[in-house]
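User:
I study polymers; will you set down one protein's sequence and backbone structure tokens?

Assistant:
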Amino acid sequence: MLSDSISQSNSIQNNLTQLEHKKSITKVIEYIKMKLPDFISIAKMEGIRVEKGLNHLFVRIMDDHKLFQFMHEDIEHPISGNSATIDIGIYTKGDSSTRFFAIEAKRLDTSISNYNRRKKEYIANNNQGGIERFKKEIHAKELLCAGMSGYVQSDNFNTWHNRINNYINEEINGSTIGVVWNSNELLQIEKIDTVYATYISKHLRISGNEIYLYHIWIKLE
């Protein structure tokens, strides 16, 4: 029911707010939103469409804040020779020892190469899916709250919101090996703007702990 969805969204938002204030995540998110017009303008002007190029530009645009430092392809386990990396790690400037936020980014584009094989990559795809990697604690194991960025390069926010939640519903029926999905993990709308949309979600990890995800989708079509 709609009322149940609103109640769940408000509950997640309240918990997220507590976590955000604890580590200045609110300030980071507001700063990202403020800089998005510059990011979008340069991405279009330079013709950047591939994920790594967009992530590199994202960090290039964002990393002029006096308090925060943005790290591209941030390593998860520095002492490991085969550590996974998350697309963007965020630290307090001057203290690179403690990450307080991290973002995994995915393209949302139906024209992407091998789309049928990769269409669920925002969710789950043999350890390459965005949310999947948080659930399996491949990414941001030490964090209670992290983020996902969606580069919307085809269709619109509403279409992708419905599509992503449909993919999660499919995963609930048992597609992802090693993790359990449930209906509480559907993305809840926070705000839809002209150039970005934000969503919030809560996910069960393999350890039994939960992680809150803040989704920022950026219109690049």
